[in-house]
Design a protein that fits this description.
The chain is built from eleven helices and 17 strands. By secondary structure, it is α/β, with parallel strands linked by helices. It is globular, with a radius of gyration of 21 Å. About 40% of the residues are buried.
């Protein structure tokens, strides 16, 4: 394993779509969402540790979650857990971690990964990322990975590869032409029919010098604010920088503007597991199409449902078709899978009601 390999794991998202399982205090990345005895962030860290030395993995999260990370991944040094005082999307997050990495190793090659995505085919994942890091180490390119789309999903971003001009002699590496975030369904269908578009899996690989140069060119204010930070930078300084920092994703801030972005087709299976429906599609099903992830479930005349409750709970279902059944912290939710947006709106109203109630008292 190359000692110059580094990883940034982004772990600050609120995971609001999985309420009541996921909450602001304990979001999706810290939950055993797949019912396998391992949280999403634990699984991501273990996977990344097959590519980078354990001490070269930096996790960036919120001030709210620093203690949770140390609990779920014991033995991390202080520099490996960077806590943001407020969310400013992925560009500041990556810049903060990159500043620490550059000071520790100016020869680092870095790959950036979300903390809460589902990956199948770990051997393929390790091989793909390792190959991309070898390429990035010796070239001034930013490399991203794209997953083969299986449906016109409107909740994913899409990357367009130039199919006519693969980079010789690397046949799986193509120039990236466009990034499109969450297109309408008809546009997504056109993308898939063209054969040129892939789902954006949110993984970026670059040499630390290329990363720094890209920020200085396309996001100079963020570069100026973050690239002098060190492990000894006072917390008050970090808080001040974030309070003044632009909220922007690395996709919009750099990838869409840069002319040296190249893409590889991912060999592994991928899902961002962003919704109950995507979780359902990720899990194994019984002969009636049900995904019973956790809890003791007895089902009759029931199909295409997903159940995620504590293991000590017993659930008896009859006559349901296409429902989500989940319980956490004495809150039970039973909703249709095909009405995700209404779930989110309902959750927001419930949480707002709780806040108003607390303020009254």
């Amino acid at each position: 394993m190359d000692k110059n390999n580094y990883c940034i794991i982004m772990a600050g998202g609120p995971g609001s779509r999985f309420w009541p399982l996921s909450t602001e205090e304990h979001p999706k990345q810290f939950i055993d969402l797949l019912g396998i005895g391992e949280t999403m962030i634990q699984r991501t860290f273990r996977r990344c540790a097959q590519i980078c030395p354990r001490e070269n993995i930096i996790l960036v999260s919120s001030d709210l979650y620093g203690d949770i990370i140390h609990q779920q991944i014991p033995g991390l040094a202080d520099y490996q857990v960077l806590c943001e005082p407020t969310r400013r999307n992925t560009a500041p997050c990556i810049a903060y971690a990159a500043s620490i990495i550059r000071r520790r190793n100016p020869n680092a090659t870095v790959f950036v990964s979300p903390s809460d995505h589902f990956i199948s085919g770990w051997d393929d994942y390790v091989e793909d990322i390792s190959n991309a890091m070898d390429i990035a180490r010796n070239n001034k390119w930013i490399i991203t990975l794209g997953a083969q789309p299986s449906n016109p999903n409107t909740k994913y971003g899409y990357i367009q590869f130039d199919e006519e001009l693969p980079m010789p002699p690397i046949g799986n590496l193509h120039k990236v032409l466009t990034f499109t975030e969450k297109p309408p369904v008809e546009v997504a269908r056109q993308f898939i029919c063209s054969g040129e578009f892939f789902w954006n899996v949110g993984i970026f690989i670059w040499h630390i010098d290329v990363l720094i140069d890209a920020y200085r060119q396309y996001l100079p204010a963020i570069a100026e604010a973050f690239f002098d930070l060190s492990e000894q930078t006072p917390k008050e300084t970090i808080d001040r920088i974030y309070s003044q920092c632009e909220t922007i994703s690395v996709d919009h801030g750099i990838m869409e503007k840069s002319d040296n972005v190249y893409g590889m087709r991912a060999s592994f299976g991928w899902s961002d597991v962003e919704t109950w429906d995507s979780l359902y599609n990720t899990c194994d099903h019984d002969r009636s199409g049900n995904a019973f992830i956790s809890g003791k479930v007895f089902a009759y005349d029931t199909r295409d449902c997903v159940v995620h409750v504590p293991n000590n709970k017993t659930v008896v279902l009859q006559g349901l078709d296409g429902y989500v059944v989940t319980e956490q912290n004495n809150t039970l939710m039973i909703c249709r899978r095909d009405q995700e947006e209404r779930h989110v709106k309902f959750m927001s109203d419930v949480e707002l009601s709780k806040i108003k109630s607390k303020n009254k008292h």
